[in-house]
Design goal:
mainly alpha; five-stranded parallel beta sheet; about 5% strand; 12 strands; 42 helices
């Protein structure tokens, strides 16, 4: 190239070619065919011929990877590509791309089909030249047609040549055109399949040198000018490690098979192979081959994860072929079907992958996965289950078949598969047999199966055995079994032990173990709950907060509840957050704060919404809200709704409502429903029963909570029993009240002692009551003394009862002060 004019006004070019070169216009563009091309002023070489070249390349930042040739990667959100995973060539690739303005050297990535070449190139292009325009010609002539506009463009441009071999040719990319691009510093970013590269590069395939055509010659000369970056098909451990951290189900699915396929290969080839299989069922296509693939897919679905024999696929495939028409489709021969299904498509992939053992195959994993994800998945025919189970018995792989059969509701197949596996010594098969027996009401067989599993050394058997003993009332045996499994870190046993121990001291060590092992927010929540139940509020608050920070909604609510008294504004934020996370309990707690603030409308909306979705605990507060607004009818309705659905506090409030209305019989009925679990209900019920003369039932509800009843109410209960004629009960409750500091109970006990003629006891009770601040005890003492004929003492206590000081007593001779002797004169 001798000369290049960058005139802003020129939108055409001219040239002369040495040897057999030619330059001419053809249809919509200019075609160049030259070994050595010189561009000069068109007016000098070809008159005033003007060529119009439309060129409106988009900017890199505005271009999608799909537009530039990146393959779709299966199903995803709105068809988006998975997140990009850094590849081992990325650093070198970016260094090479960034050096183009200085060196002008083209960049070429070589790798097997679907190795991820195009995606790696696109991500590097977007990072290095995001503001450039990118031109991606369809083929060589398309490239040459746009070359003048590309060269003379005012904008910085990048030439994108995906599948470089498609652009090489006498009428396309030649060494001379590549030289022009290098000298004008137009970045060239290209990819090429390894198969094509090996065909064109002599050092790789020396036998290919004989008889090669002009296109091959050009390709070899071009590739000799470019130092290729090679991208391996299989990913290295560092790449796999980075892929494992990507939050995308497609990438995770590909990583699972990265030992056999490249991750990019799996993602890119999979959808295309799946589509080819779906389209192969029609007449004139490959319906028998598609049926063979369907049989192989169902082998995977049925738990056969390794390769299967050709004979098994042949025996199974007819039922799949019959589903779509059978012989009417004029299916191909079985040999043609296998040839089609095993033909290489991309990289090393095919629909049926041959195994190392001759005559065995395995379906390409993506196809089975995608079929199970799709709505196209059909029931596995029973005949296929039978064939697969018999094959699995010969292969000693019935355990997984049992798992698959159970998940597909093939209980008979599952039981037979697990029995076979158990007979071969599989403890896990015994475990699953046990659960299957439970679902079919064969508990005795279930316990026997789990016992066999435990004897076979299967630690996970202790969990279901412990749970069975607990459900049958043998708590001690359950704890023993749970401890046995927990000692070997069996999670079900640890959780069973925590649940059965509840707030017992031992539960803490197992809860801490769960938190240390799993780090799960729900386990930390349970640890916080344990501390909460045991009154260790600081530790409870700390663990609720940590679980809340991890987004655990119940912990967010509970932490809010713990800080609500001291920090209602902070609690409100937590309650709102938990409510947004779906917690109706948080909505109820938030409503309680709003009720106290007088923001009744929002509180009512929250509570009504909670009740509407079945959270009937909100009914108690909703009724209270109406009660505060004197809407007693609405309050009764809300509490009745909650009571009908078993909400304890709704039942309590409704009972209180009837009690205040004078309907004590209805109140007693409601209190009885919850007295065993609600101490306030038990206390109220005790009062009502005692006043009604039903002292024995009253005492049955009151004795278990005696220590938790206030001293004042203990005294009141003593009066109830006294009026009911149960003086023994009355004395007991009066004494309990007096012992806990309620002085008035001393008066009651003094009266009873006086009536029984126990005057000294009466004096002691009255004195205790008076000294605790009850002056009426002095009046009662005065009356008692008067009745006993002790007037002075009666007068003394009467003065005290009226708040007067005691009367002054006459001095006795013994109380006189000594006097000094008179001085004698």
């Amino acid at each position: 190239m001798d000369h290049l004019d960058h005139s802003a006004h020129r939108d055409f070019f001219s040239g002369r070619a040495e040897k057999q070169g030619r330059v001419f216009q053809q249809q919509s563009g200019v075609q160049i065919n030259a070994d050595s091309l010189v561009l000069a002023n068109l007016a000098e070489a070809a008159g005033n011929l003007q060529l119009t070249l439309p060129f409106n390349a988009p900017r890199v930042a505005e271009t999608s990877a799909i537009e530039l040739g990146v393959h779709h990667a299966g199903t995803g959100t709105e068809g988006n590509l998975p997140p990009y995973v850094e590849r081992q060539i990325d650093k070198e690739l970016r260094i090479r791309i960034n050096s183009i303005p200085r060196t002008g050297e083209a960049v070429l990535i070589v790798g097997d089909s679907t190795a991820g070449k195009t995606r790696a190139a696109f991500e590097a292009l977007r990072e290095c030249f995001g503001d450039h325009r990118v031109f991606a010609p369809f083929d060589g002539p398309d490239l040459v047609s746009a070359l003048p506009a590309l060269v003379e463009s005012k904008d910085s441009c990048v030439l994108w040549l995906d599948n470089l071999e498609r652009h090489i040719g006498p009428d396309g990319l030649t060494p001379q055109v590549l030289g022009l691009l290098r000298r004008t510093r137009i970045p060239v970013l290209s990819t090429m399949r390894a198969e094509q590269y090996r065909r064109l590069v002599p050092s790789a395939t020396p036998v290919a040198l004989s008889g090669h055509d002009e296109r091959t010659n050009l390709g070899r000369r071009i590739l000799e000018q470019i130092h290729a970056i090679v991208l391996p098909r299989l990913w290295n451990p560092e790449e796999i490690g980075r892929a494992r951290k990507v939050d995308d189900s497609r990438v995770q699915g590909a990583v699972a098979f990265s030992t056999h396929y490249g991750v990019a290969e799996y993602l890119a080839a999979g959808p295309r192979l799946y589509q080819e299989w779906v389209l192969a069922w029609g007449p004139g296509s490959n319906p028998r081959g598609a049926a063979l693939v369907a049989a192989a897919v169902d082998c995977v679905r049925a738990g056969i994860t390794h390769s299967v024999t050709r004979e098994l696929l042949v025996s199974m495939h007819e039922v799949y072929l019959a589903r779509v028409g059978g012989a009417m489709l004029r299916p191909e021969s079985i040999e043609e079907a296998f040839d089609w299904a095993t033909r290489l498509r991309f990289g090393v992939t095919s629909l049926l992958m041959p195994a190392e053992q001759l005559g065995r195959f395995k379906v390409f994993d993506y196809i089975a996965d995608e079929f199970m994800r799709s709505n196209a998945s059909q029931t596995i025919p029973h005949t296929s289950w039978r064939s697969i189970l018999e094959f699995a018995k010969r292969e000693n792989s019935t355990y997984l078949v049992g798992l698959a059969a159970e998940s597909n509701d093939e209980t008979e197949i599952a039981e037979e598969a697990w029995r076979e596996s158990a007979q071969r010594g599989s403890g896990k098969a015994f475990i699953h047999l046990g659960f299957l027996y439970v679902t079919t009401n064969r508990e005795t067989e279930a316990v026997a199966a789990w016992t066999n599993a435990a004897q076979a050394g299967e630690v996970s058997a202790y969990g279901p055995l412990g749970a069975w003993h607990r459900s049958n009332g043998d708590r001690e045996k359950a704890i023993e079994l749970f401890r046995e499994g927990a000692a070997s870190d069996d999670e079900m046993c640890i959780r069973g032990l925590v649940e059965i121990l509840d707030s017992a001291e031992e539960a803490e060590q197992w809860l801490l173990k769960l938190v240390d092992q799993e780090g799960d927010a729900s386990d930390r929540h349970n640890l916080a709950r344990y501390y909460d139940l045991n009154g260790r509020k600081d530790l409870a608050r700390k663990n609720y907060k940590e679980a809340a920070d991890e987004g655990h909604v119940p912990s967010i609510n509970n932490y809010g509840a713990m800080i609500a008294d001291d920090n209602p504004e902070g609690a409100e934020e937590y309650f709102r957050s938990a409510y947004r996370g779906g917690s109706q309990q948080a909505a109820t707690n938030l409503a309680s704060i709003l009720v106290d603030r007088g923001e009744w409308q929002e509180a009512e909306n929250l509570l009504r919404g909670a009740v509407e979705v079945g959270y009937f605990e909100a009914s108690a507060i909703l009724g209270y809200l109406y009660h505060k607004q004197d809407k007693h009818g609405e309050a009764k309705k809300a509490w009745s709704k909650g009571a009908e659905n078993g909400d304890e506090w709704s039942i309590y409030n409704l009972a209180l409502y009837f009690r205040n209305e004078g309907n004590k019989d209805r109140a007693v009925e409601l209190y009885r429903e919850i007295a065993d679990s609600n101490e306030e209900a038990a206390e109220d019920l005790g009062f009502l029963l005692a006043n009604a003369g039903n002292a024995d039932e009253a005492l049955s509800h009151l004795e278990p909570i005696k220590e938790k009843i206030s001293p004042q109410n203990r005294c009141a209960l003593g009066s109830c029993f006294h009026h009911a004629g149960r003086r023994d009960m009355a004395k007991s409750w009066y004494s309990a009240a007096l012992d806990s500091g309620h002085g008035h109970a001393g008066c009651k006990l003094g009266d009873m002692a006086f009536q029984d003629g126990l005057y000294e006891d009466a004096v002691q009770f009255y004195r205790t009551s008076f000294n605790s601040g009850h002056p009426h005890a002095a009046s009662r003492m005065s009356n008692m003394m008067l009745s006993l004929g002790k007037g002075k003492e009666a007068a003394h206590w009467l003065r005290l009862s009226k708040g007067l000081p005691p009367s002054r007593a006459r001095r006795s001779s013994t109380s006189r002060k000594p006097r000094g002797k008179k001085r004698r004169k």
